[in-house]
């Protein structure tokens, strides 16, 4: 018996001649995590510049909007995996303790991607930085540039499906998720500590922030490390501006 009754629905076609469905008009997974507004903004962001370009050159072909369709499906799939795994995890504290980390890692990684793009745009004025994520594959993922991140979500869902089917014990599934974070995650500093089940609240001290910066410079995958550093710079500039101490006008 399922732990909850699925609410999801989706349209068979979301992009066609002279129309594009967005967010809940295209489909719905569950209210858990309140992804509706965030998903809508991502879709509008991907659709907007394409509409402007099409209006300029008169090319309204569906092929031009193929990425928007792929993004729709990617957002659905990511949210569905997360919601399903969460509802299964709710029934077993030790499993939820593990699944919860995959949600937090997704949230932090998504923020990092946005902060990185914001910082580079503020430095260069080059709008192309906002399109890089589209070229990296894995549309709909908060961290599309990391196959390790994408695999984490799929692994978590597979384990939760096995728990619901009764073929894997919740404790064993939780242990595998924690092990994956500790030993295989390469997209965030302190993964070895973040994956420890006893660390229910990871306190990012000044010392750990400095260590994370060093990790970004020396150990992180190049595509991750430079974005982590840019995100940190962007947040620092924003805080300076908010405090009235920065030299930039935002």
Polypeptide structure, described:
- It is built from nine helices and four strands.
- It is mainly alpha-helical and 250 residues long.
- Helix 1 packs antiparallel against helix 2, helix 2 runs antiparallel to helix 3 (93-124) and helix 3 crosses helix 9 (222-243).
- It is flat and about 55 Å long.
Offer a concise description of the structure:
The chain is 62% helix and 3% strand. The chain is built from 9 helices and 4 strands, in the order ββββααααααααα.
Mean pLDDT: 90
The biggest sheet amounts to: 2 strands, antiparallel
Helical percentage:
55-70%
C-alpha termini separation: 53 Å
Strand numbers in spatial order across the main sheet: 1-4
Topology diagram in text:
Blueprint: E1 9-10, E2 15-16, E3 19-20, E4 27-28, H1 36-57, H2 66-90, H3 93-124, H4 132-135, H5 147-165, H6 170-183, H7 191-194, H8 206-218, H9 222-243
Antiparallel strand pairs: 1-4, 2-3
Helix pairs in contact: 1-2, 2-3, 2-5, 3-6, 3-9, 5-6, 8-9
